[in-house]
Amino acid sequence: MRAAVIIVFLVAILAGCSASRFVKPLDRGQHAVTASFGGPLIKFSGAVIPIPLTSVGYGYGVDTNLTLFGNLHTTSLLFGTGQVDAGVCWNVVTVKRFGLNAAVSANMTIDKWQKNFRAWPVVDLNATFDRKQGGYCYVGCNNWIEFTKLRSHGVNQERQLIFSPQIGHMFVKEKWRFQVEAKYILPYVKNQPNAVDYIGMNHYGATGIYFGLYRTF
Questions:
Q1: pLDDT digits (tens, 9 = 90+) for 7-43
Q2: CATH, domain range 2-209
Q3: What's the CA gap between 62 and 193, in Å, rounded?
């Protein structure tokens, strides 16, 4: 049981490695360079801190309803695992100041030791509300799909869906955007026993805090 919980949460760290990518599409022909910092909250030396997961990326607005993006996960790279994600953000519908947006991507990893390759389809759904000034707020969910039947050490994979609700705000300026997001990773899975002490309600799941920075041009 202990091994199974730890393995589930190792995958959950991957699922919670960044804030939502491009909650809304860019304008047609617009470019953006992005950076993300943050992760699941843990207790470390008596303090509560986010696991310092970082990534950098790029996005391009194909039109006002569709943006292509890709990201390199720099923290994973420092620890010997190449991790990238790439996909599209699509505006499903907009009604006045409300919108529904979907980001569909693939998250891929390969380690430097045994060259093990893994890939997960990821679907983000977010409902947005445009503020009259200062950007927009959003609420939604992040969904990772796990296809493998066995995890490391022959442990059965019992959960094919890694679900994490999220809420955030994007502050929008002329050339800069700043994102703040809270995510609740695996709220239906007990987070103990585990190698680290995750912060979650009643010992379930892990609360994540994330910050994103966008430079558009």
A1: 445 555 566 678 898 999 999 999 999 999 999 998 8
A2: 2.40.230
A3: 46
